[in-house]
Amino acid sequence: MDMVHGGRVYEYAERVGRTVDRIMDFSANINPLGPPVSVMRAIERGLGDIRHYPDSRHDGIKRVLQSRLGVNGDQILCTNGAEEALELLFRTIRPPRTVVLTPAFMEYATIASRYGSQVCAIPLSIDVDVRLPMDKLDGILRAGDVLVLNNPHNPTGVSWPRHQWRKYVEKWSAQGSYVICDESFIDFLPQPLAYSALPLVLAGEHVIIVRSATKMFAIPGLRFGFAIGAPLLFAEISSNRDPWSVNHLAQVAAMAAYQDVEFELATARWLEQEQDYIRSVWGQQEDFHLFPFSANFFLVRASSAALAQRVEKELRKEGVFVRNCEQFSGLGADYLRVAVRHHWENIRLWTMVRDLAIASR
Ligand SMILES: Cc1ncc(COP(=O)(O)O)c(C=O)c1O
């Protein structure tokens, strides 16, 4: 069975004989408060305009992002999800080698290989917490290579403040290596600016940020993402892509989403409370090690692979799905990745897991 992605709700529903709305999906890291009402209204208002081709300049959404991020329109590349941004970047840069820090979102290696790049996996240092192996990369990266730095990091949920990696990224980008900073989950952090590579993008040609609206605003089925980087690179990409891959509804939805301050505040309140709850239960249980996390998902290591597998299997019977990490290089069958959801869902999950762990002792 293909386990490369979480969030395969249609497949889950079919497998357990339920409708999609009776699946509790902790395997995809989607904001349960969304989509925001503002986004749903914008989609309704935009429906009549689907008779026209979408704006291939992405003018409206670019203006919203420009004022939000303090960048120019030509430094923004709008895409059909962060996935398309990654795809277009690799297709254009064509790096001889791509360095990924493992465990990693699997699409990096898949896309890089598709464009003939040799993938070099450098393990993160994982014991009680998760640390960047920056010193190890020094002799490895050459001009033209890509390093992917995913922050907040999937699948661990950890985030590294910029002061921990800034000087390395500045050095490597100055020597001609590209650093793609995948910040798809950064809107979930209370102080995104302290973690973002934004100041580095503005200073140089070789640092590129990738962001996603699909997680924060809960529109993975609609899709919107973007990249921030050098105008020359983006001009080259734009001249060689499907001009209509970002559909009209995705553009109007993203415009509403990125202006909805209330929704972002509500998300921040919900997440802080639920993170505290998760630390107070998962973090206190002897059968699991909870890794420090600041995003909207967390990684746990069960005391044995058998326990993690049993938990996953028994939950599945109840229509509850978590992400097993067997296929992540550097993790294994004893690790589970779990999304933070509504309080009642987090309680239900925890109660089931705790009872299973006790019964397995
Ligand atoms: C780290 C990371 N980057 C990018 C993506 C792709 O996001 P999108 O839905 O915007 O294509 C994902 C999806 O899970 C992800 O986890």
Description:
By secondary structure, this protein is α/β, with parallel strands linked by helices. The protein has two domains: 9-30 and 261-360, Aspartate Aminotransferase, domain 1, CATH 3.90.1150; 37-257, Type I PLP-dependent aspartate aminotransferase-like (Major domain) (Aspartate Aminotransferase, domain 2), CATH 3.40.640. The protein is built from 13 helices and 15 strands. Helix 12 crosses helix 13 (343-360). It starts with 8 loop residues before the first helix and ends with a helix. The structure holds pyridoxal-5'-phosphate. Pyridoxal-5'-phosphate binds next to helix 4.
Instruction: Please provide the count of β strands.
Output: 15
- CATH fold title of the largest domain: Aspartate Aminotransferase, domain 2
CATH superfamily of the largest domain: Type I PLP-dependent aspartate aminotransferase-like (Major domain)
Number of domains: 2
Could you list the spans in which at least 5 consecutive residues all have pLDDT below 50?
none
Task: Give, in spatial order, the strands making up the sheet with the most strands.
Answer: 2-10-9-8-7-3-4
- Summed over residues and divided by their number, the pLDDT gives a mean of 95
Rg, rounded, reads 20 Å
The SSE string, one letter per element, is HEHHEHEHEEEHEHEHEEHHHEEHEEEH
Could you give a short account of the major beta sheet? 7 strands, mixed
Helix content: 25-40%
Distance between the termini: 29 Å
Structural class: alpha/beta
